[in-house]
Amino acid sequence: MLLAIACVGLLLFFIHHISQAISVNHIVARIASETEVVIDDVMPLPREQRRLELSDSNDLGAWDKPVLSDVSGYIRFVDTKRLLDLAISYRVKVRVVRRIGQFVPAGTPLLMVYKAERLSPEHIGQFRGAFDFGPSRTLQQDIEFGILQIVDIALKAISPAVNDPTTAISCVDHLSRLLIRLISREMPEPLLYDLKGVARVSIRLIDLERLLDSAFEQIRMYSKTDIAVSMRLLRAFGDIAATTQDLTLRRMLLERAKRVVAGCEHRIDTEKLKPMLIRLTALERLTVA
Questions:
Q1: How many domains are there within the chain?
Q2: Geometric angle at alpha carbon 84, from 79 and 87, rounded to 5°
Q3: Which residues contact 115 (CB under 8 A, 6 or more apart)?
Q4: By residue range, what is the domain housing residue 182?
Q5: Whole-prediction pTM value?
Q6: CA angle (286 as vertex; 244, 249 as ends), nearest 5
Q7: pLDDT tens readout for residues 67-82
């Protein structure tokens, strides 16, 4: 009897857990939480803690030989420390051509190398070994992938077949949460230096403007007739702008907010457009130095 009662209790818990796990809002929140963990891992320093900028007198534009990928797949992980150690050991400079999350077909450039004559085929294989490829993107280092998963849910929600603006609004809220977290952190250094101050590795892990477009541009385009989602986009831009003192970033957000309003002007009547103009004006005030 005790086992029967325990089984019934576990069954009820299982049903409750499954109902929560397949909820769209729960899925979006989980993706956002996992993406925050990736942000913390890739960008551990708060934005206020500026790292020392080292100068390099060498020409970083002179890359004389490509290292071709020997496999096809998505870049899921790049061991930047290993790349730097290898570049220092063999006295070369390398520039990573593709970003994390991008697809690399076999036979296309993966790295560009300066002083490549110093590398043997075995050395080139060691550089390739600093990359992990897979058949699909993962959240291991790929912040954009987490953002795109939430965007995909939002786009399905605002499609005419589903017409679920509430879910789309929830997605926009979580996207603003991620962008606020992102801009509060120091961007990864695109140049990695040796102990003498010579830049050995060039790799751009994060592109803030690209992430802003990935997060909001498609939602903006498909929500031109949805006043609720468009209003929430404007609120998201305002919330993000309010958390930073960077005027350049605030102006980037203002430009995107203007696109939201411009896209709705010919599809929404003037009376419904007024609240959007009020939010746009509030955002414009934040861009005044």
A1: 2
A2: 125
A3: 64, 91, 92, 93
A4: 143-187+205-286
A5: 0.81
A6: 45
A7: 999 999 999 999 999 9
